[in-house]
From TrEMBL:
Residues 30-93 form the DUF4218 domain. It comes from Dendrobium catenatum. This is DUF4218 domain-containing protein.
Length: 93
């Protein structure tokens, strides 16, 4: 999903497309199999800028508690380790 999302939106202006691509890169790096705590701290700092850019594009009703969780995901990855071992997707199937 992180790789496919930017392609259908490629016709959008750069000011709208850039935050969407940054969001996709954020999730791609978060779900990677290599763990780098320094990179996760950098992602945590840049995450607020991504959310601010998205707030300029989308209307306020778009943002609920789920968008706010993006702020906490890198911290949870630093504490808990790799993200794929924290999710319950394998156990739900």
């Amino acid at each position: 999903m992180q790789c496919l999302l930017p392609s259908p939106f490629s016709f959008l202006p750069y000011s709208i497309l850039n935050p969407l691509i940054e969001l996709c890169i954020f999730f791609k790096n978060l779900c990677s199999t290599k763990f780098n705590a320094e990179h996760l701290i950098h992602m945590e700092n840049n995450n607020t800028f991504i959310l601010c850019k998205l707030e300029k594009i989308f209307p306020p009703p778009f943002f609920d508690s789920m968008e706010h969780l993006l702020v906490h995901l890198p911290y949870e990855a630093i504490i808990g380790g790799l993200v794929q071992y924290q999710w319950m997707y394998p156990f739900e199937r």
